[in-house]
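task queued by scheduler; priority normal; single chain, no ligands, no partner chains; default sampling; output format set to structure tokens
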Amino acid sequence: MAQLKPLDTDEKGRNLLMQSAAKGYGFAVAYLLSLPELREIIDLRDAKGLSAYDMAQLANTQTLLACHPDQEKMNPFVLVPFLVTQPYYTSRAPFPEITRMLAQAGATEDLTAARRFWLETCSNKDAKLRARVNTTTALHEELIMEQARQVRLSCFTRAARSMEQVRELLAESWSGERMATAEAKFRQETLEKCGGTRWPDEVPYSQ
């Protein structure tokens, strides 16, 4: 990315502004928008038909789990860097400000291409979510909420698996009462850790 000149594009058809918007680098977006030659082509689209504004709305580097919820099927070379960078995106939340800067600089705010891209490439089959994505005028907010939901479900899923392993290991040595007490404590601790007041229906929890 550093080797490109402002007007150059990479093999995906993305210039520096598009790359910066996609990565959530607000400081870079602010600088690049100060260049008249880039503002003139602010609506340039890459090989997949996405503009810098679309990329900021999709925020793939922050909302990957909204798109592909099944982490076990995900390429680890994609998943691990995504998980490592999440503290940055969670604490900075850069994409709304990037979206604002692009719009203020004259970017077209039509989300048709972004919505189509998400629906065509994402494996999330939730019918209600897909219907909302298809019509929303607040795509980023919709995907952020789904990302948060998937993170929470993942937290509960890991907890359920851990408890199942405890049952298998201690079923013969612990009494039913002791196991029930331990599970009740574990469930409460999981709720505090993962968030919420009840165990989500999407995560099986056998007792």
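post-processing summary
- The chain has a mean pLDDT of 92.
- The chain is about 65% helix and 0% strand.
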